[in-house]
Amino acid sequence: MERIQHIEARCWRVPLDETLHDAKHRAHTHFELITVRVRLSNGLDGTGYTYTGGRGGRAILALIEHDLQPFLLGRPADDVEALNAAMGWHLHYVGRGGIAAFAISAVDIALWDLRGKVRGESLWRMAGGAGRSCNAYRGGIDLGYSLEQLVQSVEGYRREGFDAVKIKVGLPTLADDVARVAAVRRCVGPQARLMVDANYGMSVDEAIAATRAFAPHDLLWFEEPTDPDDLEGYARIAQATGMPLAMGENLHTGHDFTRALATARLSYLQPDGGNCGGITGWLEAAQLARVHGTAMCSHGMQELHVSLLSGQPGGGWLEVHSFPIDRYTTLPLRLQDQRALAPDVPGTGVEFDWVRLEAATQHAGSAG
Fold first, then answer.
1. pLDDT lower than 70: segments of the chain
2. What pairs with residue 37 in β-bridges?
3. Quick check: is 117 catalytic?
4. Would you say 135 and 305 are in contact if contact means Cβ atoms under 8 Å apart?
5. CA–CA separation, 81 vs 317, rounded Å?
6. Are residues 67 and 167 in the same domain?
7. Is the dihedral of CA 46, 50, 51, 56 positive or negative?
8. Are 290 and 158 contained in the same domain?
9. Which of 168, 252, 305, 321 is catalytic?
């Protein structure tokens, strides 16, 4: 039974090609990538990671360096689920959810990478083996775009092979949001799937009004219309409008997902393996979603989630995010017949091009 011999973590400040805007977080100029490399006593390495929208990365790194690393060294690496639970209880008093969930996620993903390499199994097989491809849509952080820029970006997504797109809403004037939704619907045509995302920038009443105004444009879902802690508010929106609702990127624990699925009347659940306890947490959320009959989707980290969604039964949707993490990986996301194709290599299939990452980023700290 191989034991954990060494853990190295780093935090990278990754610049974006342009400043991106949404309704709540406002301007994004960069994202933070926190990487974790776990080495076993036999010399085998596994890689995990998480990310932020530009804040908190150093705190996540510090938790890994000062709390998780000494806690895990010398432990057997094979029972990943038990290690995940142990990390959760180790940090529970100071960080149930929040940045603790990000730190645990990065380590958990590295441990799953090791599990796959030891077994010689790809992640899509370990995640259920239902298939090797999944539905995919292209999501933009595009609220700062002019109407012309927005349409041009969507046209670009279509040329890339996507037949489903998501845009941001939440401008000060609802009429402007409606004009953008209408323009994108005209651009993609009546058959394409179209979603909108308000990044919880609206009140419940504003979201109900917006949903009714968007109704003629045949949306697949309205994502995070309001505060993700207001689960009763989500239920009010769904009941008042009948619009399918989606959320999950701000849910970090099994308790969060249990409450949301029981209360919020969600049609789509969107966990992020980078902040919900890693692959272990994502799969636990998927099991809960099946019980509730809610479609399982994802948020961000498309190069990892493609394997998780492909391995699960059902027709959920992979978000292909605007943060270009897979620009710095050796196996970027592939589309085949408008579906995302999971890598078929042992482990998670996510390996970073460290030389390219080092060259492109401003190094924000390290631990090891």
1. 1, 362-368
2. 8, 47
3. no
4. no
5. 25
6. no
7. negative
8. yes
9. 168
